[in-house]
Amino acid sequence: MAAKRLLVESGSNPDQPNDKRIKKSFRSVIGEVVMANSLQNFCSFLEPVLRKVVNEEIERGLSIITTRSISRSPSFRIQALEPSKLQLSFSKNLSPSIFTVSKILDADNAPLQIFLIDARGNRVAQTTLPYLIKLELVVLDGDFPKGNTTCWTSEEFNNSIVKERTGKRPLLAGELTITLRDGFGIVGDIEFTDNSSWIRSRRFRLGVKVTNGTTSDVTIREAMTDPFVVKDHRGELYKKHHPPMLEDDVWRLEKIGKHGIFHKKLEAEGINTVQDFLKLFVVNPMKLRGILGQGMSERMWEVAINHAKECLLGSKLYVHSGSDYTIFLNPICQVVQAIINGHVYPARGFNGVAKAYVEKLVNEAYLNWHSLEEVEGGLNGTPLLTQGDGVDEYPNNHQGVVRSHHQQTFIGVEMEPIAINVQEAGSNWPTNHGMYTG
Hints:
By secondary structure, the protein is an alpha+beta fold. It is about 30% helix and about 15% strand. The radius of gyration is 43 Å and the shape is elongated.
């Protein structure tokens, strides 16, 4: 049996391939190929994941290094931690009341301007950006923000935008988009198409913000004007002018209504314009007060006079002359210079005798106003009015000075006038010392 087993084993050919070994080798090759292919796919999937992780770690490491570096420098630390406080700002507010279908201007009847300002720290300064910014004008509720605060969020600002009533035209019409260039922009022709009486506050604000979709690397805060009332344009027929003009009808003054009782009383006395009103106030204030009567309270009287005092006088002078005198008056009968018997008297140079004589001449000039000679500008190129000084030597008279051009009210010739009161100095009627001195 052992020999037989040996014979069988010895009879096998060593050069003949082993089928079992061949099958095993082929299976291994196939497995290796499959494994290599799977590993390649796995690596392709893993590569972007690894790249992302590596990039994040690198950025985190750099940010830590930068933060440590900044923390060592106080100036850099303040600049890095302080948020941007860029904000828009209107140059001026609007008038307290405006009318529909009328161009919106500022309180000085000039085009509205918008600035970009930097309000970091305790300073506010105009600034610029190296690129253009598109802005959008909107209408806001007059009660925004609540509590009269100056703080609001962009979401609160947008939620307070007022849209037109159903079936109406857009509330604000015109050039509603502005380009902010070098930190400055001018508002074009815009107007309201509806009044403000239909919202609860009965007032609007004009707001401006960066246009939605504008790409910017900084945050810019919105701006708004003070609240104002928008009235229907039909009411403009009765509008009070600020400032009033000399040639305006007298009812354009506050507290004097068109065709009202005060208007009729003034018309009956030949006082038809603001200039007529002011001339009589300068020459004979007691008479003017008497014409208006007790129906006009002291408060109403004060409001009407203060409104009249905003009037722009211009540069025209009126000359009243005779054989031995020449006096120069401004448009409201104030003396700016007098020449008597060849002597030139400035506005404050009258002695007792000359003062009484000039009072008489002023009264004559007032009564014959339409016969006076009109001249433009100064006398012999010399300024007639000085700025800022009051008239103190006539304490019992209504006094006045003309404000300088830079004060934008009562602009006149450039030398201080005096007001001559032809009433008795002992009158018990209350006087307004320092008239037109502000």
